[in-house]
Design a protein that fits this description.
Blueprint lengths: L1 H35 L3 H28 L6 H39 L1
Helix pairs in contact: 1-2, 2-3
């Protein structure tokens, strides 16, 4: 039982380490929205990062369920993992579109000066 707990803790810590940049982007997005108001670019960046963060958390939980507790067969894990990857892809697309809109706005503002 103790080895299972240590494996779970290791998986959770590595998942947290992997999620730190996403958490930083969420904080930066919230700060941007507070300073500029609700703009489409900031909202897309924030929603995209929240979806990516949730995908990281769900992926970690899914892996722990498979590797440590062996709750599912490999095929079930594969289907669930594909679904989480698709969710993460949607979050990444939202993030990219929001970043593109923000960059376009910054370039437009600079060219007017």
């Amino acid at each position: 039982m103790e080895s299972n707990i240590s494996q779970v803790l290791i998986q959770l810590l590595t998942g947290l380490f992997y999620a730190l940049p996403t958490i930083a982007f969420i904080v930066i997005s919230i700060y941007y929205l507070l300073k500029t108001g609700t703009k489409t670019d900031g909202i897309l960046i924030l929603i995209g990062n929240i979806i990516i963060f949730l995908s990281i958390v769900l992926g970690r939980i899914l892996f722990i369920q498979l590797a440590v507790y062996q709750k599912w067969e490999g095929e079930t894990y594969s289907y669930l993992s594909t679904g989480i990857s698709a969710l993460s892809f949607i979050g990444s697309i939202l993030f990219v579109v929001g970043t593109f809109l923000l960059i376009r706005k910054v370039i437009k503002t600079k060219s007017l000066m």
